[in-house]
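# step 3/5: fold
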Amino acid sequence: MSKVKSIQISYIEYDSTKELKSIHKTLLANAKEMAEQAYAPYSNFPVGAAVLLDNGKEVGGSNQENRAFPSGLCAERVALFSAGANFPKQKILAIAIYANTEEQISPCGSCRQVMLEYEEKQGKDIEVLLMNSKGEVRYFDKSSHLLPLGFKFDNFQSK
């Protein structure tokens, strides 16, 4: 017997950063700054990310492309992997992502999976803030809302 099921995600949409916590405003400003450092000569789509750690430090990243496609890396993964490599014992509290486009942005599937795994590994939710060039922000209280049927460790662990 088949059943119809559904998945719902929740997020808050802001017209600007005015209503955000000051730490989130700062994180988004840093993500925007990181986008200016992107190396995106092929896509012409610079993206910046900033990760907030539980020790108060921030780690930034920008997309880094390469003509030997797909050797490049998205801003989100640059920031997350840098945080993981340089601060392996710190938990990630939030990630802010900025792209210079009027459209609302969203991380690619690979970046969503990486966020989900960091969230699962640390046993703590990671807040996600997405901002476009108009200053519109989408806020997710956990990265798993971006990938509700993500590939989890339990999926391939032998029992």
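# step 4/5: annotate
The CA atoms of residues 34 and 48 lie 5 Å apart.
# step 5/5: archive (pending)
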